[in-house]
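Q: What would this complex look like in 3D?
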Amino acid sequence: MKKRFIFVCAAALTALSAAALAHGGATGIVKERMDAMSAMGAAVKSISMMITGTTPYDAQIVKSGATVIQSHAGGALTGLFPKGSQQMASEARPEIWSDWQDFQTLSLRLETLAQGLKLAADNGPMHGSDSGPAAMMGGSGSQMMGTEGSMMMGDSGMMGEGSGMGSGMGSGMGSGMGSQVMEMNPEQWANMPVDGVFNMLTRTCSACHTRFRLEKK
Amino acid sequence: MTRLFLLLISALITVAGALALAVVLWPLQPPTSTIPPNGDVARGAYLARMAGCIACHTNASAGGAPLAGGLALQTDFGTFYSANLTTDGEFGIGNWTVEQFAAAVRAGISPGGTPYYPAFPYPFYAKFSDQDIADLWAAFRTVPPVSLPSRQPDLSFPYNFRPGLKLWRGLFLDSKPFEINADKSASWNRGKFIVTGPGHCGACHTPRNLAGARQVALRFHGAEGLPGGGRSPSITSARLNKAGWTMESLKYALKTGILPDGDTFGGTMGEVVRDGLSFVSDEDLTAIAAYLLDKEQ
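A: Here is my prediction, written as structure tokens for the whole assembly.
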């Protein structure tokens, strides 16, 4: 009887750990990464709902969301990817470790932008979802490269991002562009509309996912 | 016995050689087209951005000049490098005529009459109208020349046998011009044009067969083994609607890269948003969403 009980317990334990493994096999540091990403995702979701007008704008929610992102960015983010952890089953691409400098640049940029987002929260959004590069295309001049020039003026707060700085036209994050962005400090974001800063922040997320995350969907 | 074997082998070699020669000599005739003389530069630049010309033909991470080419595209067939599309007379397209440009973009045939590899998504660009081509040409004429030779692809046999593309074209190429669906709204049709034409969504979201041709029956069903090793999700209207996408959430995701759950696009879709979709007008984003979700606007 007792033997049988032990057997049942062992079987149940095996089933449980199998289930845990099936759930992405996330334990230890990989689980910590997923939790950090989920926390940032939840913050992005609540802020984007306000930017799109789905929920009313509340600067306080932006500030708390930005604080969450800031706490998981920079060194806190890169610290979750120690050397040697590439052997673990996860969505992390090996490029994280081979292009560590770029990964670190993006992570620090996320931290800076989260600080800036906090400072810009009281500015409110500019014109809802209609900011961004396309809004600037209107007066983009008559030359194909003229669009690049006008982007630099950043009239809706996209300066420094994407195509604006000339190095972002193709794929990949030019390291030059990264350093240009890094030259800006959080105080410089403080005068920008909140949706402009938020846009740049989420593009940093996307740029990092593009280079360093395996797509399993 | 040995003699018969040798005879058979030499016969086979002769036949294969004759076939290869026939393929090499088989002329490619680009369709003749009359392109309007005047193009709108701003509209052409907008289309070039939307079509990914600028994204793929600029080696930005290596500090390359706009549209000077050299960006590598790693595929199952080998590595392709985008060509120099600046107005440089020697290495770019500075000495081309608009008719040659039209044949290259819509039919995938070079001014010298050789076929382009479909890594250049010209089967999609076949949907460009004569006016679109005129506008694109006007925009490309404004690009400063860069004296940089285009790099030939690094492909393995048999893919490095460029005349073989003529067979590929005969088997798989569909270069029908854009067709309006009269039962649908203007916005839906604009979306159809963008998605099946310049946007070339199917290049990644439709699975390909062993010869690298898109499988029509599995249109937009998502694909694996994309350039660089990624995979793409299904974007059929049934799938998107079932997953809860709305006009608003899809437009916002395409413009910003932010998904309804707070995640952001990764893979090459992040680049598609950054280099293309974030520049697309609100009206066109509405059209794309209306077509993809098959909703009337």
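A: To summarize the key features: The first helix of chain B runs from residue 2 to 25. Chain B has 13 helices and three strands.
Q: Very helpful, thank you.
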